[in-house]
Amino acid sequence: MGISRSRSPTGAPRSCRSISPTPKNDTSFFGPVAGRVAGRIARGRFVLDGKVYHLDINDGRNTLQGGGRGFNKVIWTVKEYVAGGDSPYVTLYYRSFDGEQGFPGDLDVYVTYRLSPYELGVHMNATALGRATPVNLLQHTYWNLGGHGAGDVLGHTLRLHASRYTPLDAEMLPSSGRGAAPVAGTPFDFLAPTPIGARIRGVVGGRVPGYDANYVVDGEPGEMRPVARALDGASGRALELWGNQPAMQLYTANWLNHTKGKGGAVYERYGGFCLETQGYPDAVNHPEFPSQIVRPGQVYRHDMVFKFSF
């Protein structure tokens, strides 16, 4: 995500993930917001108000993370920056234009990163201008509570407040009509604290062993509620995530491959994990899923809070 500075120099928190096979040391998904529609859209097409829209196809036969020039590769403007006080923050802005990557209508997007003692809040909103459009923003963040150079995260224990998940096919797309399935009795069950690596060989996240799975968060969508809690027993560090979206993607860095990172560290497979609140995958082509359509004058709101302890 590029940034232009209209006020004080700053930057958004750096972190995140690469989610499909990429060349070595491709770090284009380390840190950005994904959009206009994160995740995959089958065959790069959808129908809205009777019109067929064709998107940029950049993942086999499908569109991934908004297309080849999604929100992770555009220039964002710093609209507001407050460095001092108990709750410093930065607000970034981007105007997505009508037809960008094939999506209809102009879209005003704001993302605010706010720090407070032991918390990081990420607050995203988007307003459709003139035409209806799908919106599903996502924050890509890699976490390794042992430290970014501490090796894999398979020993971290994870609890998810999600009793259902959406089964995906070989192209990482949901099967039509299947909806959500119970996690009980499957390798996707993290209702009780469980090491991430305990059953990881039993799942395939995009053709390699690992999680790249969408979970349905328990509770009422639109309300802030607990989503996940992770703990690294070696360091004692813990992370708790709260959010207001209907779903969350668990990703275990399945495609990291000798990727050079900060401080000379090299990141390998399972070197981090991602907890990405979002809407359902490919919702634009699945009427059984909650709608992601934002109409003119409506505001899409997506909030998450990461809480840290040790």
From TrEMBL:
SUPFAM superfamilies: Galactose mutarotase-like. One of its GO terms (biological process) is hexose metabolic process. GO terms for molecular function: carbohydrate binding; isomerase activity. InterPro entries: Aldose_1-epimerase, Aldose_1/G6P_1-epimerase, Gal_mutarotase_sf_dom, Galactose_mutarotase-like, GH-type_carb-bd. Residues 1-24 are annotated as: Disordered. Beta-D-galactose binds at H140, T141, Y142, D212. Pfam families: Aldose_epim. It comes from the Eukaryota. This is Aldose 1-epimerase. It comes from Sorghum bicolor. The lineage of its organism: Eukaryota, Viridiplantae, Streptophyta, Embryophyta, Tracheophyta.
